[in-house]
Amino acid sequence: MAKVEIYTKQYCPYCVRAKQLLDSKGVAYQEYPVDRQPELRDEMIQRAKGGYTVPQIFINMSHIGGCDDMLALESRGKLDELLAA
Ligand SMILES: N[C@@H](CCC(=O)N[C@@H](CS)C(=O)NCC(=O)O)C(=O)O
C-alpha cells in the first residue's frame, strides 16, 4: 500500500475534501496538523517546494500538490495508479 501523507489545518474545506476522497477509497494516511504543530508548517513548505496552502499531499514521498491537484489526478484516472504503487 502506498505511503500517503497530508498536511492539514482543522478548519480547511480543501483538507476535508481531500481526506474524504482518500477515506472513500479506504486509503490510510498520515496526517500532519500544521495548525497544532507549527514546526510542521516549515517542513511542509520545504517539502512542497514553497507550497504554503493546505492541504499538501505526498504519495510515496512524491509531492502531489493540493486538493485540486489530487482531484485532477482522480478525474484523469491516475490517482489509483499512484495509490497502488
Ligand atoms: N487550490 C488549493 C487551495 C487550498 C487553500 O486555499 N487552502 C487554504 C485553507 S482552506 C489555505 O491554505 N489558505 C492559506 C493559509 O491558511 O495559510 C487546493 O486545492 O488545495
| Shape designation | globular
Largest sheet entry = 4 strands, mixed
Radius of gyration: 12 Å
Termini separation comes to 7 Å
Number of domains: 1
Unreliable stretches: none
Query: What count of helical segments does DSSP give?
Result: 4
- The third-level CATH topology is Glutaredoxin
Query: For the record, what CATH class applies?
Result: Alpha Beta
Give the mean pLDDT. 97
Helix content: 40-55%
The ordered H/E elements are EHEHEEHH
Helix/strand-derived category reads alpha+beta
| Strand order within the widest beta sheet | 2-1-3-4
Function: Has a glutathione-disulfide oxidoreductase activity in the presence of NADPH and glutathione reductase. Reduces low molecular weight disulfides and proteins.
Family: Belongs to the glutaredoxin family.
Pfam families: Glutaredoxin
GO molecular function, one term: glutathione disulfide oxidoreductase activity
